[in-house]
Amino acid sequence: MEEPAKVYNTAVEATLEVIGGKWKPVILFYLTFGKKRNGEFRSLIPDITQKVLTEQLRELEEEGIVKRTTYNEVPPRVEYELTDYGWSLKELLRLMCRWGDGHIERKYGDKAVVRNPTPDALPQ
């Protein structure tokens, strides 16, 4: 019998391998609203460094989740968008938002603020 290429303890591990971390789910969340340019991400996610943003986008691109389009303009314009495969994560992101809303309410009540849309605002 041939050795498996990779062994996972659970499929959750495989999911987290692709979209895990502090910023990837946030980047994917914003991409559900449409194409984004680098500067838009920096405005939407002010705490992320340019280096980390670039790394995260490259990793998502390598996994086939995000498509990078470069336009032959001066200055160069680059846009990021979800691939069809990336769109398959939409419901998971919606559930993460709902759970997060409930957690924030449970833990902080009205003493916390969510700056950006709730799961109901995610595109259908």
Automatic annotation (TrEMBL):
One of its GO terms (molecular function) is DNA binding. This is Helix-turn-helix transcriptional regulator. It comes from Cohnella xylanilytica. Residues 3-108 form the HTH hxlR-type domain. Keywords: DNA-binding, Transcription, Transcription regulation. InterPro entries: HTH_HxlR, WH-like_DNA-bd_sf, WH_DNA-bd_sf. Gene3D superfamilies: Winged helix-like DNA-binding domain superfamily/Winged helix DNA-binding domain (1.10.10.10). Pfam families: HxlR. Signal peptide: none annotated.
